[in-house]
Design a protein that fits this description.
The complex is a heterodimer of chains A (281) and B (280).
Chain A (H helix, E strand, L loop, with lengths): L1 H41 L1 H6 L3 E2 L4 E2 L2 H32 L2 H16 L2 H19 L7 H25 L3 H9 L4 H12 L1 H17 L2 H7 L16 H8 L5 H30 L2
Antiparallel strand pairs in A: 1-2
Chain B lengths: L9 H18 L12 E5 L4 H14 L5 E6 L1 H9 L5 E4 L5 H6 L1 E14 L7 E2 L1 H8 L17 E5 L4 H11 L9 E3 L2 H10 L3 E6 L8 E2 L1 E2 L6 H5 L6 E8 L5 H11 L1 H9 L10
Parallel strand pairs in B: 1-2, 1-3, 5-10, 6-7, 6-8
Antiparallel strand pairs in B: 3-11, 4-8, 4-9, 4-11
The chains are: A mainly alpha (281), B alpha/beta (280).
Amino acid sequence: MNSNSEKLSHAVFFALALSSISALVLITVFILVQGAPIIAEIGLFKFVFGMTWAPLKGEFGIFPMIVGSVSATIGAAILGVPIGICCAIFLAEFAPPLMRNIFRPAIQLLAGIPSVVYGFWGLIFIVPSIRDHLGGPGLSILAGSIILAIMILPTVISITEVSILALPSSYKEGALALGLNRWQTISSVILPAAKSGIIAAVILGIGRAIGETMAVIMVLGNAVALPESVLDPVRTLTTNIGIEMGYAVGAHRQALFATGIVLFVIIMVLNTTAQYIARRK
Amino acid sequence: MRLPKKYIPLSMAAGIKKALALACCLSLLCSCSNKGNLSVIVAGSTSVQPYAEILAEEFAILYPGSEIDVQGGGSSAGIQAAETRTADIGMSSRHLKESEEAVLHSFEIAKDGLAMIVHPDNPLDNLSLDDVRAIYAQEATLWSDMGGNGHKIHLITREEGSGTRSAFEELVMGTSVISPKAIVQDSNGAVKQLVSNDRNSIGFISLGLVDGTVKALKLDGSAPSIENVLNGTYNLHRPFIFVTSDEPQGEAKEFIDFVMGQHGQELLAKEGLIPPEKGD
C-alpha cells in the first residue's frame, strides 16, 4: 500500500517532469525540421556568412544580423555589467539592511517590466535623445544597447550577489584580521573567490540580451547592413524573425526558422559555458 | 493609427474560426433554414485589411445573418490562401504575377496612392521619381543633393514581404534595389510616426493615411491626390485586388458584388481610396 502510493507519486512526478523536457524536444525538433532544409539547400557557410538578405529574390545571408546581435549585446554588456557588478557588491557588502530591503525588490521589479514597455520607453525617450544630441537617425546600436543594458541588470545583479553571499564568512574575516581595509578585502579576496559566479552572471545576462526581441525591434532600426558606428541601425537575429514572420511564406518562412536555429545554437553555447564555469571551483 | 492584426497565424485562426462556424451551424441546424451559413473568409494584404473590415461591417448591416471574416497575413499569403482555398477571398495590394493571374479570378476593388513623406519642417516640396530612386538606392545620401540642407538622409522602408514595399519597388526602384542600410519598420503607422519625429527622414505610406504630422511630397511636380492619380499625372499608385480560385459563388459573390457596386465604391472613396479603372 505504502510502496504503491510511493510508486504512484514517483510516476506522476516523472510524467510531469517529462512533459517539460518534451516541450524542449518538441520545439527543437520543429525548428530543425522547418529550418534545416533551407540551410542544406543554400549551404551553411553561405547562409551564415552571406551579406545579402533579400528573401523574395532568394538571397538568404544572415551575417549582418549576426553582427547586429553581437554588437548590440556587447554594447549592453559594456554598459550593464560594470553597473550590475558594482550594484551587487554594494548590496552584499556595503548596504545597510534597510536599504537592501528596498533595493532588492526594486531590482526584481525591473525584471518584471514587459519588454514592449522597455521598447516603447526607448523609442519615446532614448531614440530622440540620441538623434538630437549625437546625430544619426536615433534608431541605433547605442539605443538598443542602453535598453538591453537595463534589461540584463536584474540577472547580473542577483546572480553576482548570490555568489558573493555564498562565500564562507571566514574569507572576509581572515582578510580583515590581516589588516586589509574594506576595498582591499573586496578587490583581492571576495571578487577573485566569487569569480566563477560573476562570470556565469555575465554570460546569462548576455544570453538574456541576445534573445530579446520586442524591445529591440522598436529601437534598433532593423536595417540589414553592417554597421559602421554605434549610431547606425542594425537588425538582430531575433528581430529578423519578429519583423518578417507576419508575411513570410515558403522558403522565406523556412529561412526565418533557420535564423532561429542559428540563434538557438548561440544561446545553447552561452548557457552551457555559463553552467560549466559556474560549476568549476 | 491602424495596427494590422498580422501576427495571428493565418491558417490557425482560419481553422479555429471555421471550426467555430461549423459548430454554430450544427447547433443551429434545426432552426436554420438559410443556405449554407459558413462565414466567408477574406485574408491577405494588411494594407487592404482595414478597408475590407469597413466593407464587411457595412455588408453585415445590409445582409443580416451573413458573416465576413477579415484577416491579415500579407499579399503573398492572401493570394496563396485563395489558391489553396484556405480563404474564400484573398486580398492583394500588389499586381498579380503571371503565374498567379493564370489560375485566379481577380477583381480590382480600388487603387491606393503611395505618398512619399518627409518631416513638415523639410524645405523640399517636390522630388522627381529619379530623385526618389537615387535616394533609396543611396546614390544620393545628403539632403543638399536634392536642394535641401546638408544633413544625411535617413531612409525608412518597409519589411520584405510587405505589399507596400513591393509596390514601391515595382513603381519606383525598377531594377535598382533599396539600400540595405535603410531603416525597416513593419507598418504604415510606424513609418509615419518615425518620419513625423525625424527632420531628416523620408518614407512612403498609403496616400489615404497621410495627415498633418507629415508632409507628402509632390512627384515630378504633381501633388499626391486622388484627382492626379485619376488624370494620370501622379503615377505612384497600386491596385487593391480581391482574388478567388473559382468563379465566386454564394455569399462570397454577394460580398464581391457589394464591394464592386455603387455602395461599396462610395464607402471606399470616403476612406480616401481611388476608384479602379473600369473594365479591369
